[in-house]
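INTERNAL AUDIT FORM
Audit reference: QA-55
Scope: verify that the stored structure record matches its stored sequence.
Auditor: D.O.
Record contents follow.
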Amino acid sequence: MTHTIKGAILPPKLRPGDRVRFVSPASPVPKDGLKNGAKALEDLGLVVEYGEHVFDTHDTLDYLAGKDEDRLADINEALRDPAIKAIIATRGGKGAYRIADGLDFAAARKHPKLLIGFSEITILHMAL
């Protein structure tokens, strides 16, 4: 059930069986860097998924987790999927500011979900 507080749309609480998806909207994460986090989430009864480009790296800009369009596509795909209940950024770093204006805001309103992240991910929180 979606809630509102003073105009803010709040997603429902996570429950066992809910699907969550890791995405990398900013800096890259090592291939084995999500193992412990995924296990902890699964131990809570959540179903963990990974964006198609979650482990990408950029060819020339090593501080980015792949191309802007691919990082944005992973987030927007998760925003558009009504079965995904939380989007989890793999790390902060740098680069989310480059894609914040391309978020699918209509999908975020239609299918509210948690966006979990810190540092550079704050720009996505602010955009939403």
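Auditor finding: record pair retrieved intact. The chain has a mean pLDDT of 94.
Action required: none
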